[in-house]
Specification:
The chain has a two-stranded antiparallel ribbon. It is built from twelve helices and two strands; from the N terminus they run ααααααααααααββ.
């Protein structure tokens, strides 16, 4: 039994607000810390969360309104063109970016020298990442807007019925099916599973000779996201590929319609999967939940006592309760007479000749709190 439009609106609305908040949380911590922001393996995650956040604010919010009311949010051609351009572009961008990320992860783990120079990083990292993000936008701009289409705007259909313009051209239909749906799904699953198996195999072969902790962390960083694609996207895409190969649409049609709808959960749950790769995640979440608590870290004072030029810094520690106190130093023996002060000599901060108080440099060494 297919899911009704009203239930679909709640299925999308339920995780929408937590997903938006989690996206902001993940982007804030990834972009705030310079080390996380500069790491090449985090760029795919940042771009995934960013595209997903824009998708949630625009397309998914508009779809929730459409499923709840049965009408488009705004009755205008400009909105219909914007909806059919923004919605599918960002939705497919999450698939193409993840597909390239699963390929690039093999290079980062096993061939890190390929990114040794700026030129290599430009052509092997930034350029493919930009193409995978901009390709859906350029395709739907051409297929759904620029190409002539005889379909009129229908405000009672999703995307105002403008997505049907993609199926007018046979070449655009095949490119949309293979390049935007089938190929990214198969590439993501194949390369993600292959990376996991490859890491285990190399660890078994090179055991003890290489520290695999960093490589394992980098390899498993995409595992939660790959699991989402494997469980949610891959089954309906298999049916989609079967239909393209000639299987009748009556086979699994009920599951296909609902399964393809649930692929929007990949966009909604991507931020939670990406948050698992943040360092000190438990501390960051605790600071957000208990944001009103001021954490004042009190550090013990460090005293500097310099006697010679080569003396090291010694911290002055306060003895704990019950600890024995060290005996005070005994005064100098009385048999040794103190020298008589002469005119112009400074003794205990006092000039004998003039009677003026002069600072005693030796007794006023500043204490440095480290």
């Amino acid at each position: 039994m297919p899911i009704s439009n009203y239930n679909r609106s709640w299925i999308l609305f339920g995780p929408l607000i937590p997903s938006v908040l989690c996206s902001i949380f993940v982007l804030y911590h990834f972009l705030k810390t310079r080390a996380l922001r500069k790491a090449l393996n985090n760029h795919v995650l940042i771009l995934l969360v960013f595209c997903g956040l824009i998708e949630e604010i625009t397309d998914l919010s508009w779809q929730i309104h459409f499923y709840r009311t049965g009408y488009a949010l705004v009755y205008s051609s400009a909105f219909c063109y914007s909806w059919v351009l923004i919605g599918p572009s960002l939705y497919i961008a999450t698939f193409t970016i993840m597909a390239w990320g699963s390929i690039e992860r093999h290079i980062l783990v096993f061939y890190p020298r390929w990114f040794g120079t700026r030129t290599k990083r430009l052509f092997l990292h930034y350029l493919p990442l930009g193409i995978s993000a901009l390709w859906p936008l350029m395709f739907y701009l051409f297929a759904a807007i620029i190409l002539p289409c005889s379909y009129a705007n229908s405000y009672t259909r999703r995307y105002c019925g403008r997505y049907s313009c993609v199926s007018v051209n046979a070449v655009a239909t095949w490119v949309d099916s293979i390049a935007n749906y089938i190929l990214p799904a198969f590439v993501t699953v194949a390369f993600s599973v292959g990376l996991f198996v490859r890491v285990l195999w190399h660890r078994y072969r090179i055991r003890g000779r290489i520290d695999w902790r960093n490589y394992k962390k980098m390899a498993l960083q995409l595992l939660p996201i790959s699991t989402l694609y494997l469980l949610i996207q891959f089954p309906p895409i298999i049916l989609y590929a079967a239909y393209a190969a000639g299987v009748p649409y009556s086979f699994g049609s009920g599951y296909y319609a609902d399964g393809l709808f649930f692929t929007y959960w990949i966009v909604l749950f991507n931020p939670f999967a990406c948050a698992l790769s943040l360092p000190d995640l438990k501390t960051k979440v605790r600071n957000v939940i208990f944001f009103w608590r001021r954490q004042n870290a009190v550090q013990p004072a460090m005293a500097l006592t310099r006697r010679n030029a080569d003396q090291t810094v010694v911290p002055a520690r306060k003895p704990g309760p019950g600890a024995p106190m060290k005996p005070a130093l005994a005064p100098p023996p009385a048999s040794v007479p103190a020298p008589e002060p002469v005119a112009g000599q400074v003794t205990n901060g006092e000039d004998v000749a003039s009677g003026a108080n002069v600072p005693n440099v030796s007794n006023q060494m500043p204490q440095v709190n480290l």
